[in-house]
From TrEMBL:
Keywords: Hydrolase, Purine metabolism. Belongs to the transthyretin family. 5-hydroxyisourate hydrolase subfamily. NCBIfam families: hdxy_isourate. It catalyses: 5-hydroxyisourate + H2O = 5-hydroxy-2-oxo-4-ureido-2,5-dihydro-1H-imidazole-5-carboxylate + H(+). Catalyzes the hydrolysis of 5-hydroxyisourate (HIU) to 2-oxo-4-hydroxy-4-carboxy-5-ureidoimidazoline (OHCU). It comes from Phascolomyces articulosus. Its EC number is 3.5.2.17. This is 5-hydroxyisourate hydrolase. PANTHER family: 5-HYDROXYISOURATE HYDROLASE, URICASE AND TRANSTHYRETIN-RELATED. The keyword Hydrolase applies. CDD domains: TLP_HIUase. Substrate binds at residues 10, 49, 114. The keyword Hydrolase applies. PROSITE patterns: TRANSTHYRETIN_2 (PS00769).
Length: 117
């Protein structure tokens, strides 16, 4: 049974218009010492989505988070080279009661992100 994390992500391979399937993802939160601590690791599903990025029952808190996508390993599985071996997106969660969605559009030589819904 899956749950919906308060923070989710989605990978789309923009160069071919298909989901980024089975991309390894890590989410971290900055701690009081100013270092990032890993909260969870996950993998995108067949639709390129990661609805269970954070563990079941995790209560989102205000703070600065970082999501890392392992793009080199993904493109290597496709037999392609890429310029960015991983993509890290750092964002600030100000309203823990809201849902935060982090989409990533990738191609071997570019990426784009935005705050999704």
């Amino acid at each position: 049974m899956s749950h919906k994390s308060p923070i989710t992500c989605h990978v789309l391979v923009a160069s071919v218009g298909k989901p980024g399937q089975h991309v390894d993802v890590k989410i971290e939160k900055i701690n009081e010492a100013g270092a990032f601590s890993t909260l969870s690791t996950a993998q995108t599903n067949d639709d390129g989505r990661c609805p269970n990025l954070l563990p079941a029952g995790y209560k989102a808190e205000k703070g600065i988070y970082r999501v890392t996508f392992e793009t080199k390993a993904f493109f290597e599985r496709l037999g392609e080279k890429c310029f960015y071996p991983y993509v890290q997106i750092v964002f600030e969660l100000e309203h823990p009661e809201q849902h935060y969605h982090i989409p990533l559009l990738i191609s071997p030589y570019s990426y784009t992100t935005y705050r999704g819904s």
